[in-house]
Amino acid sequence: MEEYAREPCPWRIVDDCGGAFTMGAIGGGIFQAVKGFRNSPAGMGHRLRGSMTAIRTRAPQLGGSFAVWGGLFSMIDCGLVKVRGKEDPWNSITSGAMTGAILAARNGPVAMVGSAAMGGILLALIEGAGILLTRFASSQFPTGPQFAEEPAPMPSPSFGDYRQYQ
């Protein structure tokens, strides 16, 4: 299963890091805004100030964490594409498991195995959902009748003695 819309590997890594940082910063900013708003003292001014403080202090850290995860995942994915010589869902699943294990390496082997399992399961669910969505979408648009490569010659109609018209 080829993914033609993807960029070549060196540029994919850079693109995934930037995209992961942006998505992490935006998602982290929204999450921290709600968290800061809820945990601030009563009063709209205090809550808005607490919300902005939480965004400023924590959103860049979350964005950086997502960028590290995205960059490491892309590097492993590109390495597997090069080693295996093909690009399929198994590369992404394996990359997710290896990324989880590498990022949990400081916490010991038990944490590595747990993070690897969670990374692999998460990426397997994402890849499976993508495959199902692709199959469902492709079944919505039929391709039409399939023609043979070389059409068979049509038999000449027999209208009696047609030599008279020659």
UniProtKB/TrEMBL annotation:
Q: Where in the cell is it found?
A: Mitochondrion inner membrane
Give the residue ranges for region: Disordered.
144-166
Quick one: a GO biological-process term for this protein?
protein import into mitochondrial matrix
GO terms for MF: protein transmembrane transporter activity
Task: Tell me which UniProt keywords the record has, alphabetically.
Answer: Membrane, Mitochondrion, Mitochondrion inner membrane, Protein transport, Translocation, Transmembrane, Transmembrane helix, Transport
Q: Major location, coarse class?
A: mitochondrion
Pfam families documented for this protein: Tim17 (PF02466)
UniProt topology in membrane: Multi-pass membrane protein
> Looking at the UniProt record for this protein, which Gene Ontology cellular component terms does it annotate, in alphabetical order?
TIM23 mitochondrial import inner membrane translocase complex
Function text? Essential component of the TIM23 complex, a complex that mediates the translocation of transit peptide-containing proteins across the mitochondrial inner membrane.
What family is reported?
A: Belongs to the Tim17/Tim22/Tim23 family.
- NCBIfam families linked: 3a0801so1tim17 (TIGR00980)
Q: What is this protein called?
A: Mitochondrial import inner membrane translocase subunit TIM17
Organism per entry: Chanos chanos
